[in-house]
From TrEMBL:
Molecular function, one GO term: hydroxymethylglutaryl-CoA reductase (NADH) activity
Name of protein: 3-hydroxy-3-methylglutaryl coenzyme A reductase
EC class name: oxidoreductase
Sorted UniProt keywords: NAD, Oxidoreductase
GO biological process, one term: coenzyme A metabolic process
PROSITE patterns: HMG_COA_REDUCTASE_1, HMG_COA_REDUCTASE_2, HMG_COA_REDUCTASE_3, HMG_COA_REDUCTASE_4
This protein's pathway: Metabolic intermediate metabolism; (R)-mevalonate degradation; (S)-3-hydroxy-3-methylglutaryl-CoA from (R)-mevalonate: step 1/1
Provenance organism: Methylobacterium platani
Keyword Oxidoreductase: yes
């Protein structure tokens, strides 16, 4: 535990206006923050340990760096995806997430998961307003498809040399609060990149031309995170006799029906899916917020927020499960190539294309969801969760080393996984 002795008391008149903060080194910034917040020597020592991310690299990845936040990386076993065994690195702070994937995958190991993608296409949007003849403007822009292709492809010769580039143009006339809006979609194959920067550059490059063709004023030029041209899909059939019989199967199907019908339930259902998905996205240095935004927007595409997975009973009585969601992930770009942990995790996964990575991630989301629904429909989520969570509670109570297991065991056996109980149990152990 960090010492509670502050190096200095927080300044009475604290100001967050710190001139030139961004120009200082991480250590200089940390000293300023320590003085501001009254951090102790041990807290400062802890924050200044960058772990396995070089301070220079961390300082280049984001602004105003003072430290890093380490998250455990666990490996999900038992996954067989499209006939190939895969070990899945998952970066998460939440207990039970990795175990859930291992358990689900073990129950379907022989058949495994089957996956596919709809493509690698990203969408960039260019917004034009104040267009007097929006429907005619739409046709004028569509007529410039080849000019748009030339403009976009010229932005990224590397991407084009790899087989990517502009694939299509769509123009929508939106009826907005501010009147008709002409929105051009650039549909771009971004190959093994997530592609945000790539398509944003293209959107900015074509903007003055779209302003001219439309006769309006262009404001926003940026990708859409609703990457519905980049869907990843996974399916698996859990045999009813391998998962505990028809009652368990029917409980899982009913849990899906609940999520399908009710946004309150669907939010939690999909959160569980994202437990698995985000963990692989983070482990591979991809953008968790982009994936979250895309997933939830896709879940609401009908106008009603619903489940990202589906469960059905096959003709032979087994449980057929499937997932489909946008997964704009890359092997290059952003932190994927720069972060050494991301590089090592990609090597563990053996994914050599962004497509394969997306397919693996979809399978992990499905596995995660199966485990959660099975637990919820049978013993409840707390039984499995609490065994791991009890260890966290024991540590929160101050247990170290062997005390952690000992305290956690008492909490679980007594069905009272609570901080106050952990403190009492720890005190008892220490008294001997
Ligand atoms: P990037 O621009 O860093 O790299 C992509 C570029 O790498 C391509 O344009 C291409 O020139 C090159 N490249 C080399 N090898 C390639 C290959 N095999 N396939 C494809 N391209 C290859 O990254 P990006 O993927 O364009 O953007 C991702 C980053 O953008 C992430 O860090 C994300 O967080 C950030 N971002 C996201 C949003 C959003 O989601 N709304 C907005 C802005 C930025």
């Amino acid at each position: 535990m960090p010492s509670s002795t502050p190096r200095s008391t927080p300044r009475a008149n604290r100001s967050s206006r710190i001139a030139g903060f961004h120009k200082k080194s991480p250590r200089e910034r940390l000293d300023l923050v320590a003085a501001f917040a009254g951090l102790s020597d041990s807290e400062v020592a802890h924050l200044s340990d960058f772990g396995n991310l070089a301070p220079d690299l961390a300082d280049r990845l984001i602004e105003n760096v003072i430290g890093t936040m380490n998250v455990p990386v666990g490996i999900a076993t038992n996954m067989r995806i499209d006939g190939e065994d895969v070990l899945i690195p998952m970066a998460t702070e939440e207990s039970s997430v990795v175990a859930a994937v291992c358990n689900a995958a073990r129950q379907v190991y022989e058949d495994g998961f089957t996956t596919s993608v709809s493509g690698n296409l990203m969408i960039a949007q260019v917004q034009a307003v104040g267009v007097s003849d929006p429907h005619a403007a739409r046709l004028r822009i569509l007529a410039q498809r080849e000019a748009l292709r030339t403009l976009c492809d010229a932005c990224d010769p590397v991407l084009v040399s790899l087989g990517g580039g502009l694939r299509d143009v769509e123009v929508r006339v939106l009826d907005s609060l501010g009147g008709a809006m002409v929105v051009t979609h650039l549909i771009v194959d971004t190959r093994d990149a997530m592609g945000a920067n790539a398509v944003n550059t293209m959107a900015e490059a074509v903007a003055p031309h779209i302003a001219g063709w439309s006769g309006g004023r262009v404001y926003l030029r940026i990708l859409s995170n609703l990457a519905d041209r980049r869907l990843a899909r996974a399916q698996a059939v859990w045999r009813t006799d391998a998962i505990g019989g028809p009652e368990v199967r029917d409980g899982i199907v009913s849990a899906y029906h609940f999520a399908e019908a009710d946004p309150y339930r669907a939010a939690t259902h999909n959160k569980g899916i994202m437990n698995g998905i985000d963990a692989v996205v983070l482990a591979t240095g991809n953008d968790t917020r982009a994936i979250e935004a895309g997933a939830h927007a896709y879940a609401a595409r009908s106008g009603r927020y619903t489940s990202l997975t589906r469960y059905e009973v096959t003709a032979s009585g087994d449980l057929s499960a499937s997932i489909e969601l946008p997964l704009a992930v890359g092997l290059v770009g952003g932190a994927t190539k720069l972060h050494p942990t991301a590089q090592a995790c990609l090597k563990i996964l053996g994914a050599t294309t962004a497509e394969r990575l997306a397919r693996i991630i979809a399978a992990v989301g499905l596995a995660q969801n199966f485990s959660a629904l099975k637990a919820l429909a049978t013993t409840g989520i707390q039984k499995g969760h609490m065994a791991l969570h009890a260890q966290n509670i024991a540590m929160m109570a101050g247990a170290v080393g062997e005390e952690i297991e000992a305290v956690a065991r008492v909490l679980v056996e007594g069905h009272r996984v609570r901080l106050d109980v952990a403190q009492d149990v720890l005190a008892g152990i220490r008294r001997g």
